[in-house]
């Protein structure tokens, strides 16, 4: 859980900084598309990157809604269980 | 070196595209259901060429193909994919078996969507620009008696092109369709002599197209000069749809 949380936050920060913009503080309640300077392609990049790093794909069986960092961590935690 | 993946590269237009790109110093991987003498010849000629056995239209096999091809290409980063693989089956729709429609759409349309998806995942993870070229057909926009499912599949490809161009343009990923007219390939060999003559008569250039009429546009769309062209369906048909 802790590793997944760190991994998701670290990769999110990397994607934002690679765009050349300042990364705000990322909290568990941060909404990817509202509170962070990310668009839908950045979010897709994050998901692909997480799949490469973890081998996990929580979306294999269909769409699952998430908005916040915490909700995404939960999806990966479930996929890992 | 830039790596380009071409589907259906063992014969016809696909083979011509593979040869053209190899001559232009791209690293090229292709796939088909069966390996043939043309593939053997290219494998013996070029260390920058690789072939994989793949059933296009199978999502798992497509993902595996792209993964293996990119591993093989090593330092040559994926730059482009050419969705060329396709089949044509003829028959009036009223009596065209649904199972034939399903298999045609699976290969011509689903296969292209699966490959585009895999390529986009790599472009995004590499944070790199890239090119997707879909080999469509004038039949996708004009229709043709007896080719309803094929026509639908090619129209679908053009829609895919437009949507993906919008979706990915901000990452410098371009997506275009090439719509050839009637080409003198194995796929057109089933045309009756009368039909061939009719097509030639109606074509301002007074001949069927040749694969070499198409390959230079593939090369151009992959080049830096085409970086602002996206979402287009470009027709090469000797003027028949003019």
TrEMBL record, chain A:
Family matches, as SUPFAM superfamilies: ACP-like
InterPro entries named among the record's database cross-references: ACP-like_sf
Protein name, entry field: Acyl carrier protein
Protein's organism: Shewanella decolorationis S12
Automatic annotation (TrEMBL), chain B:
Listed CDD domains: SDR_c
InterPro entries: KR_dom, NAD(P)-bd_dom_sf, Sc_DH/Rdtase_CS, SDR_fam
Every Ketoreductase domain range: 2-181
SMART domains recorded: PKS_KR
Classification via PROSITE patterns: ADH_SHORT (PS00061)
Record-stated family: Belongs to the short-chain dehydrogenases/reductases (SDR) family.
Protein name: 3-oxoacyl-[acyl-carrier protein] reductase
Organism of provenance: Shewanella decolorationis S12
Upper classification of the organism: Bacteria, Pseudomonadati, Pseudomonadota, Gammaproteobacteria, Alteromonadales
